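Not sure how to ask, but would you mind making up any protein sequence you like and the tokens describing how it folds?
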Amino acid sequence: MELECSRDDLMYEQYRMDSKNTSDMSLISIYFEDVQGLSDELAKQLWMILQRSMLTVRRDPTMLVSSVRIIEREEKIDRRMVDRKKQTGFIPPGRPKRWKDKMFQVLEGTVGTRIEGTQSVTKEADKMWLVRLLEITRKYVLDDLIVVKNLMVQCFPQHYNTFFGLYHNAVSSRVKELASEDLEANEIVSLLTWVLNTYKSVEMMGHPELFSEYDINQLEPLLPQDVVDDLLSKYVKTFTSNITGWLRKALETDKKDWQKETEPEADQDGYYQTTLPAIVFQMFEQNLQVAAQIDIDFKEQVLKLCLKQMNTFLIRYREEAVTYKEEHMRDRQMPQCYVQYMIAIINNCQTFKESINSLKRKYLQSSEPTDSDAAIERTLNEVAKEGCQFLLDEVFLDLEHHLNELLTRKWLTGSHAVDTICVTVEDYFNDFNKIKKPFNQFPVCIRLEDGCVTCDLVICTRCDYTNHNM
């Protein structure tokens, strides 16, 4: 340093006396030719210490302090030399060194390397690669910044205040790289949850030990809003495709159950049901819990998407119920538990309604109806009403022969038609008692609206049968 200052002073004096005398200036340069090499070697040592600053500050903080002081001194000399050049036109060789700028570049590169080194596994080797990477990044950044706060800031001038910004920028660059990759839906959620929630939480930048060092709200977003929007759009597109497939598969599985030779399961109140509503809403619940990790608005967006898909699904559900009835009409012996499963289909409509309302209460802030509510309500009522009609059709098909005997000569001369009708109706109504409210009113109400004479007879015979047994 002193040799360099001596050289610079001699050169300046020579320049003042005779600025055009290049030969004397060359003699001075030759005499001090090793000075530049010493300066370069010192710089290398400084950069090495700074690259290892997180380790150095723990083992020998005085070395780091000395390095920073050297850089600060060179920065002051740079400023003085630049100012003198403005006045005299002379500046020594190698000036300005700009070691302070270089120091920040080295620190930035060190932090960047630290963040990039958090990926311990590849996507191909581990499906949870992103979750692991983000967790390691969180831990490294938090640990490093606590060291910065407790040790590093004491080694640098207070006005530097650079480390939190360096780490923030390095993390931002890394998550931008991750966002540009071909991420799966669950990976998008993991990344956005980390970026939008974990990063500023007490688990990371909002940690109590760091709280006093900077204003977390002054940090720029890790990801630009347009990148966040693109990721959300990609997730919604993938989710829509997935949920369509899940619903289709769930319905196909339920349809297979309709063909079973055993009655469907009953709930705790004895009402027939299938597992379809539980499966569907378990899928919805899982995805809504995931969406809720991102933010409230996105959670509501996913719920509305679920309801929209639900409406499409219920239209298909209605079609399959009609097909089920038509296939049964071709061979009324099959399936053996047709009536019981049709009742379960009807009951599922009420379960769907209750589950939808439950999701809305849990995941919607507003009680305002969604765009899908009216269509869902209408379709569910139609499925239930048609299902009840199919059940009545089944009753009247069984009774048709016996009803035709009523008020005939055969009936007057002695017929068991009334007894058969009463027993059959009572048997069916034992099953109909397993229809949930309010749909358990449909089997009687539908025929009453039609004004069928045969219905009057059935109701009457049922009443007679009931009175007879009383």
About this structure: Residues 2-102 form one domain. The chain has 18 helices and no strands. The chain has a mean pLDDT of 84. The CA atoms of residues 231 and 315 lie 31 Å apart.
